[in-house]
Amino acid sequence: MYDSAAFDESPVVAVAHGDGIGPEIMAAALQVLDAAGARMTVRTLEIGEKLYRQGHTAGISPEGWETLRTARAFFKAPITTPQGGGMKSLNVTIRKTLGLYANVRPCSAYSPYVATKHPDMDLVIIRENEEDLYAGIEHRQTDEVYQCLKLVSRPGCERIVRYAFEYARANRRTKVSCFTKDNIMKLTDGLFHQVFNEIGEEYPDIEQDHWIVDIGTARLATRPQDFDVIVTTNLYGDIISDVAAEIAGSVGLAGSANIGRQVSMFEAIHGSAPLIAGQDIANPSGLLLAGVMMMNHLGQSDVAERVHNAWLRTVEDGVHTGDVGVEDGSGEAVGTRAFAQAVIDRLGQEPRKLTPVRYDSNASLEIAPEPRREPADRQTVGVDLFVQWRGGADDLAARLKGIEGGPLELKMITNRGVKVWPGGIPETFCTDHWRCRFMNGGGSIDLNEIVALSSRAVTAGIEFIKTEHLCTFDGEAGFTLGQGQ
Ligand code: NAD
User: Which of 91, 361, 372, 378 is 20 to 30 A from 268 via CA?
Assistant: First the structure.
């Protein structure tokens, strides 16, 4: 672990004022941070609607990228994403381009000041941000079947899991829960779970458990107080972090961080709410709490603590914007500017009923690059040949038997993962997309055998659409069995 931010007295922060309510809530958030003594050098950049209209398909210009690359943090107001027209999501582009590997989203209840069914809820979701199904590698393979590749890497798992444990330690949290679906995705989600167990051993002071994501999410929705820090893969994290923010009663109050090695991005979780723009009624709290996370990340935990406690006190005093439901209906609804002023007026004060926050000095976390492992002994032992075929499994098997050759024998055919040959049953619905497994009786094969098999398939008029090699790594199978195999 190392902490470079603590030595940077006035780090460069790139600020984008965004679209819709963005400029109003950003002005409010910056005003509060400034009044609290935030030490930062602000560089403004333009992103969003205007840039999309100028023809920048990701909503950011080359100069904007330069500003981001030289900043320590990116404080971003929401933007309006144009529908259709080949425009790309700015957030996804920024996350991937700048390597923002961890999405951190605290979800807390502020009962009775904000209506919620779960007054004791106080958890943080740490979502892997770069891998999984979000690689965007999709193909239509046959008339009927489309696929999306789920890519999970060991360094990616190690980075996010270590970040979660370090985050827990730095923020005095006592438990980390891992959510996966490794009962079904044994290799990809299995790796995430395995890395969680391995790295968890280095943190004996932190309680740890694992949940299958479906029952874990159900438990999260009914007993969120059972969770403290949750670490999970990209897609599950995307879904459960919205569930968690919603049941906390505070979608408009939640901030999030996207942590990277060089630059990190901080924003509210809500959008640009164009219908209420320019009316001084938007709630600046989500962005302000993202600003609190940013100050912590920059090593200015004194500022983070001052702002967060003043904000809690403001909420507790019943001062709120019109979007927030207050359980007993008391308190005063104010505009964006007045809310920001109310927080500024309370700087230096702490909440009396809600729990005051305490941030450690130097809570900024940077995870040292994970060591790369020595390559394993990789042996190819067979191949899955994927074909398009409109007939039945037995007819396909008969044709494939005709292209067997060298060490490769047809062992199994599956359709959407279910074994249909040998020994299939007529009830299994089959599409036109078949996975045909050819293996060697034992030992490894030459890659030319796979090329030769593919070539014989083409000559025999079999429409083969792709191959996946079957390999062992240090003797361990790097592939799963078919369902029913
Ligand atoms: P939204 O979050 O902007 O609004 C949803 C609802 O919540 C609306 O009723 C809105 O008035 C209300 N709301 C949101 N933030 C509020 C606040 N701070 N104070 C008071 N009320 C608030 O979601 P949407 O309407 O689906 O999206 C609007 C635009 O925002 C779209 O173009 C979308 O693509 C974009 N968006 C951007 C981001 C981002 O930049 N990170 C995130 C989500 C959506």
Answer: 361
Q: What is the CATH number of the domain that holds 410?
A: 3.30.70.1570
Buried b (16+ CB within 10 A) or exposed e, 431-451: ebbbbbbbbbeeebbeeebbe
Q: Is residue 204 part of a domain?
A: no
Q: Which of 8, 228, 238, 302 is catalytic?
A: 238
| Domain match, 356 and 389 both | no
In a domain, 151, yes or no: no
CB atoms within 10 A of CB 134: 19
Indicate whether 470 and 429 sit together in one domain: yes
Ligand 1 centroid – CA 99 distance (Å):
25
Q: Which domain holds residue 328?
A: 1-89+275-360
Question: Which of 52, 101, 134, 167 is flagged as catalytic?
Answer: 134
Q: Is 273 in the pocket of ligand 1 (CB under 6 A)?
A: yes
**So what's the pLDDT on residue 105?**
94
C-alpha–C-alpha distance, residues 45 and 36, integer Å? 23
Q: Of 298, 333, 360, which one is at a domain's C-terminal end?
A: 360
**CA of 22: how far to CAs of 43, 79, 93, 121, in Å?**
16, 7, 20, 28
Asked if 31 contacts 321 with a C-beta cutoff of 8 angstroms, the reply is no
Q: Helix axis angle, 336-345 relative to 22-35, nearest 10°?
A: 10
Q: How far apart are the C-alpha atoms of 414 and 437, rounded to whole Å?
A: 8
Q: Which protein residue has the closest C-alpha to ligand 1 atom 8?
A: 273
SS3 state at 484: coil
Given 19, 110, 163, 181, the catalytic residue: 181
Spans of the chain below 70 pLDDT: 1-8, 84-85, 325-330, 361-364, 483-485
Tens of pLDDT along 82-108?
876 677 788 888 988 899 999 999 999
120 is catalytic: no
How do beta strands 264-268 and 255-260 pair?
antiparallel
- Work out the end-to-end distance of the chain between its first and last CA atoms, rounded to an integer number of angstroms: 46
In a domain, 234, yes or no: no
- The closest-lying atom of ligand 1 relative to the alpha carbon of residue 267 is 41
Cα 50 to ligand 1 centroid, rounded to whole Å: 18
Listed residue (379, 381, 420) closest to 400, CA to CA: 420
